[in-house]
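User: Hi! I'm working on a homework problem where we have to compare a predicted structure to a textbook description. Could you give me the structure for the chain below?
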Amino acid sequence: MIALLSLPVGQAAESVTRPNVLFIAVDDLNDWVGVLGG
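Assistant: Happy to help. Predicted structure tokens:
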């Protein structure tokens, strides 16, 4: 029953246009990581 009550709320949230976001993270630790013997 709770799922049926929350269904209209989920549909209303989807109608809002969200911005396109692309997040790229690059991390080069070389051999500073202790697990790799650095």
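For your comparison, note the following. The radius of gyration is 22 Å. The mean pLDDT is 70. Good luck with the assignment!
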